Amino acid sequence: MKKMNSFLAILLTISVLLSGCYGGEGGEGGGEGKDAAQVLKITETAEIPTMDSVMAEDEVGFNIMNQVFEGLMRLNKENEPEPAVAEDYEANEDETEYTFTLREDAKWSNGDQVKAQDFVFAWRKAVDPQTGSQYGPYMMNGVIKNATQVSEGNLPPEELGVRAEDDKTLIVTLEKQVPYFISLMTFPTFYPQNEAFVKEKGDQYALNSDNLVYNGPFSLAKWNGTGQTWQFVKNEEYWDKDAVNLERIEVTVTKDSQSRVNYYEAGDLDISGELSSDYVTKYKEDPNFVSYLEPTIFWLKLNQEREPFQNENIRRAIAQAIDKDALANDLLKNGSIGANYAVPKDFVSHPDSGEDFREANGDMLEYNPEEAKSLWETGLSELGVSELTLDILGGDTDNAKRMDEFLKNQLEKNLPGLTITLTEVPFSVRLQRDSSLDYDIQVAGWGPDYQDPMTFSDLWVTGGGNNNMAYSNSEYDRLISEAQNELSDNPAERFEALQEAERILLEEDAAIAPLYQEGKSLLVKDYVKGLVTHPFGPSYSYKWVSIEK
């Protein structure tokens, strides 16, 4: 889902139920305690990179778009896809064609009807190679009919398998049966865009809040395109506005825990945002403390365009030289757990046996400093050098900086002859450097875009839009291709093929160095009701939040 600082929730371990709804039900309009001002004050970890839904590729952007736009489907309070702009849909017998009927009362914030053509326009734009979207091809290729040929410039966008039969009827043709297709329809890449408005604004579209129209629960306000503050205001044209209690959400970017806690204690934030380890220790007994495990994995990307990482022993040594449990338990202290895997635990299970993905595949690339040292010395000998200097590209938040220092210490301590330098940059800069493979080692992560292991597995196919580290293995590619095609109607064999692909990625190739499965700890005022967290796609929904003092 998202590239992470990158950015979700599934197993809520303290005060939050698995349904993902925090602070009680709330959010149905009316009710006791609703006389309080319906204004929520929150924080984000970074500035908004883009508000063009076809260009978004990060947690911050996706999370914001989930508040102000809406697709055919939306994740509800129980994290199940439910009709949104579409009031109904039906599929043909082999589930390769879906017909969506749009609701009459779906409107844009300027009063225009949301039409089927708005989806056609946005989806074509997302896969048009002239647009330059990363997520359009990533989400649609191999799913929507002809998306691959369109994104590669071999067919015009008009050949994409989506058409408007009339204003209310959208027909989507798939390349094949896609088990997770309906959950995809909740994701921001598949949101509509008001074609007439986009064309009217031209190159000014989405550059600030005035150059956008919205069809979600809220409208974006007071965003100048680069600022560190903005607002969400209730969208009176939204078809389900009666379910929306909040009149306004005030957002401030804060990149360090101290500032977030200070603002929270001063009453300037109702939700603290993520806490660093020091504050987790301080507040873990607070009744407003919330901690949960997300299906989000962080790892080190090892750029195999760089000569050292073309050596398997070097890659494997780095992967086994880091004490991941110490990272999670002693440094992060936020509910994270050390990860020796690429597909998270408690996320997906075998369609026949019900066994969690992790139970069968177990741990790989576990911490082993002695073996790491031996592999490192072998790798240096094979490279014909006695020492290496490598740079870690990381984030500029306080949590990221502390983790980078930990990684530097671990690697230099356990791998003699290694010098680590640290480059800490804003998230938008890291995205740019990732795309251009301008790094040695990168701290990166991924949260799921849909509830299927493929959202992690297809990251590493040769030439994939999110690979960006020059990894390539033909057997891995074959397994992913089979899972996407020949095995699409055989759920058990498909699941097992993806498990085998993970073993190739880690056990055989040590292509990445897994670090941890992310937990989040934060403080939420007890009067905030109805906050919903999601296990895939955007992190939060504020649609049902209310203030009940």
Explain what you see.
- This is Peptide ABC transporter substrate-binding protein.
- This protein is α+β, with helices and mostly antiparallel strands.
- The protein has 2 domains: 2-250 and 527-547, Alpha-Beta Complex (Dipeptide-binding Protein, domain 1), CATH 3.90.76.10; 293-520, Roll (Dipeptide-binding Protein, domain 3), CATH 3.10.105.
- It has 17 helices and 23 strands.
- It has helices at 59-68, 116-127, 135-140, 147-151, 181-184, 195-201, 257-265, 277-283, 312-320, 324-332, 357-361, 369-383, 398-414, 427-435, 454-457, 474-484, 491-508, and strands at residues 2-3, 11-14, 21-22, 39-44, 73-75, 81-83, 86-91, 97-102, 162-166, 169-173, 218-221, 229-234, 248-253, 289-302, 337-338, 388-394, 418-424, 441-447, 512-523, 528-529, 531-533, 540-541, 546-547.
- Strands 1, 2, 14, 15, 16, 17, 18 and 19 form an 8-stranded mixed beta sheet that branches.
- Helix 9 (312-320) runs antiparallel to helix 12 and helix 16 runs antiparallel to helix 17 (491-508).
- The longest helix is centred in the C-terminal third of the chain and has 18 residues, at 491-508.
- Mean pLDDT is 92; it is low at 1-19 and 27-32.
